[in-house]
Amino acid sequence: MGGLTAIPERKRSATNIVLSNIAVFLLLLLAAYSSRRILITPDAVLQGYLQAITGLLSFIFAAVTLVRFQGTQDRISLILGAGFLLSGTVLMASSVLFFQLTPEAPVPFRWAPLAWWVSRMVLALLFVVALLVEHFLPRSRHPRREIAGALLTVVGMTYLITAALRRMPTEVSPHPGAFLPSPQQLLPAAFFIVALIWYRRRLAIEHTAFDNAIYTAAWMNVAAQLAASQSQRLLDAPFVLAQAFTVMSYTVAVGGALLDNARLFEQVRHLAVSDPLTGLANYRRLLDVLESETERTNRNNRPFAVLLLDLDGLKSINDTYGHLVGSRAITRLGDILRIHCRAVDTAARYGGDEFALVLPETEETDARLVAERIHVVMAESTETPAISASIGISIYRGEGERIEKLLSDADQHLYAEKARRAKKISAISSATRRRAPKI
User: CA-to-CA distance for 387 and 256, rounded, in angstroms?
Assistant: First the structure.
């Protein structure tokens, strides 16, 4: 019954998404149409600056996505970064044309909006090509060749489309009173819409800040093209609105890429200082913590304790139950250290079956209580096989000892306890055999 009810829920959710997207599209179209009523004084210099800013943002996005690709090998980010770079180059070059759009300027300079349109086509096509590459070539064998081929394909298609529409743009729309005075601007919008529909499927799997930002940026580019389609003359209100949406889309894309890179850097930093099996700190992180604690003790004369733990009988567990159960035994001990210690304590995996626990501002008596509590928790566990550990304790009191000496003292104490535990177990076994009735 749960599966049967889940299917209508998914269908209802998909229907709501489609309806909401259609509603957003209609609202954007209405806003673009309404902008035709706004009368503004054409300012080519302002448009030049907006275009230059957009080009600069595209360069930043390309650099950020290159860093992201190094960490994730996500080809969509790399292809989009290349597309933004190419689009930004066109925008930066065409911004010069806007600065020369004066009433006395010759006719060729009035082709500045064409460069803007070309940059939109390049980006829209790259969106679609990136998704096609991901769908049909999920595993890349020659990423550089594939990306170069994608870029050449987009440049070629953009050139052919531009050549086919070589008569545009004109200073004044040939259909100023029509509902769509500049219908050619809907061509990039169509590609952006295709990318939106396709990218929505990716969001169901890759729900990252980068992907959400790219999806939002694609919507803003659709809005930009809808606004541009309402432009009746050069640098009128709809065209300014289109420029504003373009700048916002690039800003959102850069922001999402930066946020996602920050998340990736945090993951890399965590992996660099954590043990992959237990999630505890690794040996490198342990040494950093010990260095920090020794410096603190040297300043305030408050001792700290180090507990070294060695999992008893790991080889026997591996031989009897298998290595998977042995790995599970290691993680069980790691979980006990993580859950039953203070937030200021640092638990680390010291070696294969050895762990360390750093207890700031802790005397030997308190350290022994912690060791006893760990023994009790392991003894009370109902999971099989039962696990136990030998624990050695060392206290640093600020005498200027080296970290190696501190760990060595704890290690000696650990093996002394292991020997006592082994002797005790042997004595119990001998007593049990003596009491056993003879056959």
Answer: 46
